[in-house]
């Protein structure tokens, strides 16, 4: 479909720079508007631009509210994947230039759109990412405790592992030579305990949302058949992607996660580098964590969910043995462990995609 008018929007918290590019005449109409979507809708309708038209702005911290409002008003609006936009060669960088450039990219079909979630879908994404944020804070708080013990040359020998009940009891009773060190250590321990409590609250809310949305539980059951994927990762997969059929294949899904290698090839020379890391960083981190589970065979057989069709469970079992075999083969080549984990996560994306789109 050919669009007569392409509108680029450079969004900010307090104002929007708008540029309308008319294909037939080459005319460019610009305006500085407030961040109120209603003012933008009024400007578009009063401009009487040639139809059909569509709008575009880059994905970012302002979310999808503007796109949903414009689409509900009958004005087509897409959100551009920032990491997939062409590289800019011009040296001028300001709001007007950004809006004009985005309008021209939209007119030349060089913009790759991202999925616009509903309000409910976006709220579930926020919950999934909150769990990742709290888990990250907890991990860093524990590291600060370990660093403090190392700094003060204090060793804990009661149990082999830390952060057991015995370790918490020991930490609350242990006295350093300096009173200030004792206070500092107990504050660091208290921060860990508070974060553990917050993490429990977030996971309880995730469980409550799963109970309220039968679709979540149904889709998550598929992914939880895969070795290494638990409730948290399955919840993130469903909330972040929602509809796997919008991807052409598993490689496209891996590109969305940012697990495909970068490439700088020319002629007969093929040169691939590090992974692109462009896309959904939250899912990328979770899938790399799942890949670490394939470093050794599973100690116990995963309990099967009878509600999941047998072909899907068989596919998940095949995925497990394939990735375990792949992990051993890569390790025998003496590759670095992190590189092996990323390679496993890349192939895991293919399996996740095919399991997601399999018919019931």
Fold and architecture overview:
The chain has helices at 37-47, 65-72, 95-107, 119-151, 165-173, 179-212, 214-223, 231-241, 250-257, 281-291, 310-332, 337-357, and strands at residues 5-11, 15-22, 28-34, 53-58, 76-80, 261-263, 272-275. It is an alpha/beta fold. Helix 6 (179-212) crosses helix 7, helix 9 (250-257) crosses helix 12 (337-357) and helix 10 crosses helix 12 (337-357). 53% of the residues lie in helices and 11% in strands. It has 3 domains: 5-107, Nucleotidyltransferase, domain 5, CATH 3.30.420.40; 119-212; 221-357, no CATH class. The protein has a 5-stranded mixed sheet with strand order 3-2-1-4-5. The protein has a two-stranded antiparallel ribbon with strand order 6-7.
